[in-house]
Amino acid sequence: MASLWSCMVLFLTITSVVAAELKPKGLRVGYYRYTCPSAEAIVRKTVETGLARNPGLAAGLIRMHFHDCFVRGCDASVLLDSTPKQTTEKDSFVNNPSLRGFEIIDRAKSLIESHCPRTVSCSDILAFAARDAASISGGIHYQLPSGRRDGRISIDAEALQNLPSPFSNATQLIQSFARKGLSMQDMVILSGAHSIGVSHCSSFAGRLYSFNATHAQDPSMDRAFAAFMKLRCPPGSASRTGPDPTVPLDYGTPNRLDNVYYKNLRKNRGLLTSDQTLMSHPSTASVVAKSVGSPADWAAKFGATMVRMGSMDVLTGKKGEVRLNCRVVN
Ligand code: HEM
Ligand SMILES: *[C@@H]1O[C@H](CO)[C@@H](O)[C@H](O)[C@H]1NC(C)=O
Ligand SMILES: *[C@@H]1O[C@H](CO)[C@@H](O)[C@H](O)[C@H]1NC(C)=O
């Protein structure tokens, strides 16, 4: 009898653990199956059209989802426009002018509202759009649990407080992700997103011109690569108040989400301090080496980690709201 009971308890424990895995924090795959069956297809189509016009927006959407999730959870707080009373995350210097792809979210939202009004949240639309961007730009496909609801608060200063800095070293990056419940490995795997998109010169010009008291140039940057970057980011241009040109984060395959990012790091061709520093720490360097060695394994982990990042501090059930316009609270 006792053993029957322990069997039952074990069984119930296992099923609830499995259920918790399948439904992170109340999210589930196919959440809109009955309430808005076309939701995911509409987002997919809208992202396809948008990326056909401008492939660079794949990077914009993936970064936008990351910047949403790290600040108050994935609640579409990054999509809210500033008001006379409150400057929002969107207008923090970490997001403005660099964050891009908002029109794709607006277009998907208005199409979805015309099919199924007041049903699909902006935070889910953004999460779907980032997923589709990874699928189109990298052939990385994953099922995405949904059921997020939208928050009503967005404060500019919280973006800088919660997002990691491009000037961070590996230890600081590990800490920044740990505060969000993500591991060292998660951090290195997600940094692979820097295999697409661009950076403004101001985000790394210090590595070219003013590294420290004894070295003008960061010795951890390949010299030929640095010389080339100086041409793209001439002195004086590379500040937020100057013209501040942009350059691809991954020169090899700038629109392809792949593991070339990690190969670049091994050649000292990481663009940001926060990229190249992954080679400076034995634990992060070993995840870099594995990602170079097995692209398929990196891609699978990237998808799984995006799903976990996408369930960070989400609002579900009766919390939050389903915004009618992603730029303003209801
Ligand atoms: C590890 C810490 C990270 C730091 C310090 C960081 C910082 C940055 C910076 C400074 C830029 C360039 C912005 C500019 O100057 O225009 C950038 C671009 C980008 N980041 Fe990150 N990032 C990090 C992690 C991530 C993660 C986790 C993702 C997504 C999963 C991501 C996705 C992107 C993408 C796709 C771009 C290119 C955006 C575009 O072309 O519009 N980053 N990041
Ligand atoms: C990383 O940065 C922190 C804070 O600036 C510093 O205390 C630490 O020594 C740095 N770590 C390494 C390995 O450089
Ligand atoms: C400048 O950076 C180099 C390379 O990281 C280092 O060896 C040197 O000690 C640093 N100099 C100063 C003054 O911090």
TrEMBL record:
Listed EC numbers: 1.11.1.7
Major localisation: secreted
UniProt keyword annotation of Secreted present: yes
Residues that bind Ca(2+) 2: 250, 253, 258
Disulfide feature: 36-116, 69-74, 122-326, 201-233
InterPro entries hit by this protein: Haem_peroxidase (IPR002016), Haem_peroxidase_sf (IPR010255), Peroxidase_pln (IPR000823), Peroxidases_AS (IPR019794), Peroxidases_heam-ligand_BS (IPR019793), Secretory_peroxidase (IPR033905)
Gene Ontology biological process terms in this record: hydrogen peroxide catabolic process; response to oxidative stress
Cofactor(s) for this UniProt protein: Ca(2+); heme b
Positions with a binding annotation for Ca(2+) 1: 68, 71, 73, 75, 77, 89
Signal peptide segment: 1-20
The reaction(s) this protein catalyses: 2 a phenolic donor + H2O2 = 2 a phenolic radical donor + 2 H2O
A molecular function (GO) term: heme binding
Domain of life: Eukaryota
Residues that coordinate or bind heme b: 194
Principal EC category: oxidoreductase
Binding site for substrate: 164
Residues annotated as site: Transition state stabilizer: 63
UniProt keyword annotations, A-Z: Calcium, Disulfide bond, Glycoprotein, Heme, Hydrogen peroxide, Iron, Metal-binding, Oxidoreductase, Peroxidase, Secreted, Signal
Protein name as catalogued: Peroxidase
Species: Acorus gramineus
